[in-house]
């Protein structure tokens, strides 16, 4: 069900990716050395790769202990322990874990309960569960080296037959795979019981093999396609992945490319007037398309924000707080909706929070996860970026699927910390001679203030560490801008590929960002810790010469949850009953737009990551319109912050001056709206928790829609 994970060969500091929580940590002769220092030692697994524990069954540790009585591991809130074996010799410890709920959880190991004893760990291994294939034939979402596909599984030998009409210029695309080592399977495709169209024997269980077959000689006929498997060992499970028949005849449906630039704040894009030309291609695209100048994201870190984008639910409502949370069962994803409408769907996600550990694989026929993209990266060329690696996966996928309507979600993360633009882009805004010192300082500060969003540090904290604050922040901005420029270049290359394939004008391109990045505008760096403008103002641009014939820039406040219903509306597809965003197609058609529901952003308290950032100790909600933005914190007093902040968006877009005391009526009005909104979200949450799909009665839907709390079309 997943790839094995192993940590071993600890021969240098660079080989140690585990985090010390208590005790001392080092290496010796390839072993990870952990020692008590007056209390039992504890180490924490690195955050990358993220582990979806529902796919793993065992943690195996090989180690030598010089003292103590037991070894213990903890996965989230689940604890497992063993008595220590004979001391001063290597023993194998096996922990069978039983975690059914999907999602990532931290793994901590206490290798001994001895207070001063040394432990030498030779290896730590996570053993995946074997995929369960209970029926003779069935469907499962299966991954090979983090490349996941919808599959038809069969116990071999087998024959599965489909009777299908063959259109003109038809081709058959399919993938194949096996599940066991040393158990090869021969795959055959036979037409009308006699003519062999394809034959191949697969021996590698860790890779997919693809075929592209010509069916043009059968055009205009109904044929029987038989998918046969013949195993080396009877009973072997074989996988047919996404068999699709396509034709080169003109398509009825418009393709969709949604391109995510993770961590791109809008005001650092030349599309939005930034003095540096960081996004020349995006600026060109915007001049020919639809630009939303005031798009607000629903959360200021990737996991909840991307979930809002792909489900059209407020982050407050889908409730993702922790790394291991997933979207509600009752939510409908954009990929699910488009697949039901006849699209082939694919996700290529460089951030793991945009994939399976958030439940966002739902609706995708193909999903290339973070680890798959890393295999296409080279440190020398890509440094801290991955958009070029995303293209290396996207290009061949597009070549295979150019002849069918597709939805491709490409999630890139170039501007995300640690700010290491590739050569050729770094020198555009930064001095490469300063890079070694910047990287050294960044690592130093990261050790003091590391959260998921990167190094979180204040100017004072920077100075206390012996780092010049002004020099550090300017160098960070220079490199951040260089990464944005590289990401823009990769987007241009991807659009160029669409043009080369002859499908650019038949593709709706949607470019978005999930949140921004702070550079001390409100006292901190990175993201996730507040709801100020530098983190909530995202990019949202759409382009297609047929669907959007007249270029336009829209100043009206919109939000990321509007993206999904807008795409579906422009394509003429059904919008699910329960979406909270609102279609913006009226702006394309030149019609009047009336905002029904509020523009809201929220963040939940993160007490486990509170550290020195007070905001992490309180839930915060932001409500805004064209004139005002109100911040409300429920536990403001506990963390020493203002309970309410009000900003005039006409004169203070940077949110530097709190004018709540001068405008009590606006504060009262907006607090009342927040209260009504929260009450409605509680009702919607209750529906989202029911079953696999939402089942709301029409009366309830109509009531919520009349109040503006359910979106959809105008």
Protein model, in words:
- This protein has 714 residues and is α+β, with helices and mostly antiparallel strands.
- The chain is 23% helix and 30% strand.
- Strands 12, 13, 15, 18, 20, 21, 22, 24, 25, 26, 29, 33 and 34 form a 13-stranded mixed β-sheet that branches. Strands 1, 3, 4, 6, 9 and 11 form a six-stranded antiparallel β-sheet that branches.
- A hairpin with a 2-residue loop joins strand 27 and strand 28.
- Helix 7 runs parallel beside helix 11.
- About 2% of the residues have low confidence.
Quick tags:
714 residues; alpha+beta; 13-stranded mixed β-sheet; six-stranded antiparallel β-sheet; 17 helices; 23% helix; 30% strand; globular
């Amino acid at each position: 069900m997943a790839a094995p994970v192993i940590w071993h060969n600890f021969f240098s500091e660079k080989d140690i990716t585990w985090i010390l929580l208590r005790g001392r940590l080092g290496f010796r002769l390839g072993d990870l050395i952990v020692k008590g220092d007056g209390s039992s030692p504890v180490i924490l697994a690195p955050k990358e790769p993220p582990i979806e524990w529902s796919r793993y069954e065992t943690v195996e540790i090989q180690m030598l202990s010089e003292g103590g009585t037991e070894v213990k591991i903890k996965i989230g809130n689940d604890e497992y322990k063993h008595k220590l074996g004979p001391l001063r010799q290597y023993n194998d410890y096996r922990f069978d874990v039983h975690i059914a709920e999907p999602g990532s959880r931290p793994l901590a190991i206490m290798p001994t309960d001895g207070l001063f004893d040394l432990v030498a760990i030779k290896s730590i291994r996570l053993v995946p569960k074997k995929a369960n294939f209970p029926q003779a034939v069935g469907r499962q979402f299966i991954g090979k080296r983090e490349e996941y596909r919808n599959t038809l599984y069969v116990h071999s030998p087998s024959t599965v037959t489909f009777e299908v009409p063959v259109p003109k210029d038809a081709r058959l695309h399919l993938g194949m795979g096996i599940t066991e080592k040393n158990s090869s399977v021969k795959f055959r495709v036979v037409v009308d019981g006699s003519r062999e169209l394809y034959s191949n024997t697969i021996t590698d269980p860790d890779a997919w093999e693809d075929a592209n077959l010509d069916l043009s000689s059968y055009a205009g006929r109904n044929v029987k396609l038989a998918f046969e498997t013949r195993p080396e060992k009877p009973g072997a499970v074989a996988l047919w992945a996404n068999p699709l028949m396509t034709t080169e005849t003109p398509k009825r449906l418009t393709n969709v490319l949604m391109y995510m630039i993770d961590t791109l704040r809008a005001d650092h894009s030349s599309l939005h007037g930034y003095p540096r030309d960081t996004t020349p291609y995006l600026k060109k695209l915007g001049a020919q398309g639809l630009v939303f100048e005031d798009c607000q994201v629903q959360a200021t870190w990737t996991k909840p924000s991307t979930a809002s984008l792909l489900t059209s639910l407020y982050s407050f409502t889908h409730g993702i707080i922790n790394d291991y949370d997933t979207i509600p069962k009752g939510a409908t994803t954009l990929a699910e909706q488009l697949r039901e409408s006849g699209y082939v769907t694919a996700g290529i996600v460089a951030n793991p929070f945009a994939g399976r550990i958030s439940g966002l694989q739902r609706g995708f026929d193909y999903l290339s996860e973070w680890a798959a993209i890393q295999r296409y990266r080279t440190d020398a060329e890509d440094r801290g970026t991955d958009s070029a690696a995303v293209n290396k996966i996207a290009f061949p996928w597009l070549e295979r699927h150019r002849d069918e309507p597709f939805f491709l979600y490409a999630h890139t993360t170039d501007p995300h910390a640690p700010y290491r633009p590739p050569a050729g882009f770094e020198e555009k805004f930064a001095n490469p001679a300063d890079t070694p010192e910047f990287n050294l300082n960044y690592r130093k500060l990261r050790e003091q203030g590391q959260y998921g969003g990167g190094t979180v540090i204040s100017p004072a904290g920077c100075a206390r560490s012996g780092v010049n604050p002004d020099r550090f922040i300017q160098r960070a901005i220079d490199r951040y801008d260089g990464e944005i420029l590289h990401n823009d270049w990769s987007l241009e290359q991807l659009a160029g590929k669409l043009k080369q394939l002859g499908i650019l004008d038949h593709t709706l391109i949607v470019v978005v960002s999930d949140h921004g990045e702070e550079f001390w505008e409100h006292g901190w760096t990175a993201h996730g810790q507040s709801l100020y403008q530098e983190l909530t103002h995202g990019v949202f641009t759409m382009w297609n010469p047929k669907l959007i014939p007249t270029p336009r820039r829209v100043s009206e406040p919109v939000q990321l949850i509007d993206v999904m219903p807008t795409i579906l509306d422009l394509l003429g597809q059904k919008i699910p009953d329960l979406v909270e965003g609102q279609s913006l197609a009226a702006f394309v058609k030149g019609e009047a737009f009336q905002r029904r529901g509020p523009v809201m952003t929220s963040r939940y308290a993160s007490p486990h990551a509170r550290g020195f950032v007070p905001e992490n100790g309180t839930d915060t909600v932001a409500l805004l319109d064209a004139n005002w933005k109100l911040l409300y914190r429920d536990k403001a007093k506990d963390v020493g912050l203002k309970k309410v902040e009000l900003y005039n968006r006409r004169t203070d877009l940077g949110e530097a001056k709190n004018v709540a005391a001068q405008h009590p009526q606006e504060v009262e009005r907006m607090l009342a709206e927040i209260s009504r909104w929260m009450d409605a979200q509680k009702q919607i949450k209750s529906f989202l928790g029911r079953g696999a799909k939402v089942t709301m009665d029409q009366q309830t839907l109509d009531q919520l829609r009349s109040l503006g709390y359910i979106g959809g079309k105008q």
